[in-house]
Write a structure and sequence with these properties.
By secondary structure, the protein is mostly helical. It is built from six helices and two strands, in the order ααααααββ. Strands 1-2 form a two-stranded antiparallel sheet.
Length: 103
């Protein structure tokens, strides 16, 4: 049996488009959107400062593994952690009514 070519496998975008047709998948994907938007903003702001995870951890008075867990998205971050990270990085953090919690 031969291995499928990249063209036969399709791209991530093709696979994602196909999966998004499933209402359950779309609902789950949409529910995770804010989490990954937050994580992406934290990573981008940290890197824009030229900081490592260790640098951010020190500025937030926490550990590097805690920042790694936050950036991995494997665990739900605590609100106080999100506020602390956003304040350190100068990122806005708002709730549904537009009330600013950080940044």
């Amino acid at each position: 049996m031969t291995e499928p070519t990249n063209r036969q496998r399709g791209t991530y975008e093709d696979m994602h488009a196909e999966l998004m047709r499933d209402p359950e998948y779309r609902e789950a994907y949409d529910a995770l959107g804010p989490r990954y938007e937050f994580i992406g903003a934290v990573i981008a702001a940290r890197k824009a400062r030229g900081w490592t995870q260790r640098d951010l951890a020190k500025a937030c008075s926490t550990s590097q593994p805690a920042i790694a867990r936050l950036e991995s998205g494997d665990q739900d971050p605590k609100l106080d952690t999100m506020v602390k990270v956003c304040n350190v990085l100068g990122l806005p953090l708002t709730v549904g009514d537009g009330k600013r919690l950080a940044g």
